[in-house]
């Protein structure tokens, strides 16, 4: 600071230094506000992308499960019909060749045939249930993975906002709070479809 004897000149010099420092702080604050705005825009874009992805995944999951169930049902029905047809053809042939056998032999063959059909039906039912559960687990894990990634991104934006918040003036904090409340109100009133 140069040697100044006049108090007015000293005050003028101090005010000019203060003005330069305030201009620098205003630039820094504007930069921070721009970063927060960019973060908020990015959050909104990613929120819309998440809604679109969640809706698509849910529709795809329903369609895939329905298609798989119908296809498995048809395959199981075809297999059971084939097995039953083969079994009855075998039994009819045996009955023709052994028509002179005793009634006890006929009852034993009939019991064996009945037990076999029950076993085939039970096995098919268990296999269908296991397949449906496996498919459901796979798709639910995929949806959970997508949701978890989105939550991590949202958390990062929250941390960024937490770091920037103390640097904002009270007026800017109030404006930003009001902006977020308006957005929150819009989100609460909006019907989200999956």
Unreliable segments of 5+ consecutive residues: none
Q: How many distinct beta strands?
A: 0
Number of domains: 1
| Helix-residue proportion | over 70%
| Beta-strand proportion | under 5%
Order of helices and strands: HHH
**Secondary structural class:** mainly alpha
Straight-line distance between termini: 67 Å
User: Taking all residues together, what is the mean pLDDT?
Assistant: 76
**Which sheet architecture does the biggest sheet show?**
none
The number of distinct helices, counting runs of at least 4 residues, comes to 3
User: What is the radius of gyration?
Assistant: 38 Å
Shape: rod-shaped
Could you explain the architecture of this structure?
This protein is mostly helical and 194 residues long. The protein contains three helices and no strands. The relative contact order is 0.09.
What labels would you give this structure?
mainly alpha
Please write out the topology:
Blueprint: H1 7-97, H2 103-164, H3 170-189
């Amino acid at each position: 600071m140069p040697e100044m004897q006049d108090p007015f000149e000293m005050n003028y010099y101090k005010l000019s230094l203060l003005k330069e420092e305030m201009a620098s702080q205003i630039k820094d604050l504007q930069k921070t506000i721009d970063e927060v705005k960019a973060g908020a825009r990015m959050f909104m874009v990613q929120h819309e992308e998440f809604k679109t992805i969640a809706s698509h995944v849910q529709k795809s999951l329903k369609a895939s499960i329905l298609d798989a169930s119908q296809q498995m049902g048809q395959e199981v029905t075809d297999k059971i019909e084939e097995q039953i047809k083969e079994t009855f053809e075998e039994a009819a042939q045996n009955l023709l060749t052994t028509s002179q056998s005793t009634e006890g032999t006929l009852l034993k063959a009939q019991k064996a045939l009945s037990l076999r059909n029950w076993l085939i039906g039970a096995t098919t039912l268990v296999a269908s249930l296991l397949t449906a559960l496996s498919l459901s687990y796979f798709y639910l894990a995929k949806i959970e993975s997508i949701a978890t990634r989105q939550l991590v991104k949202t958390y990062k934006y929250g941390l960024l906002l937490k770091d920037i918040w103390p640097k904002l003036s009270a007026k800017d904090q109030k404006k930003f709070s009001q902006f977020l409340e308006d957005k929150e109100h819009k989100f609460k009133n909006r019907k989200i479809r999956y």
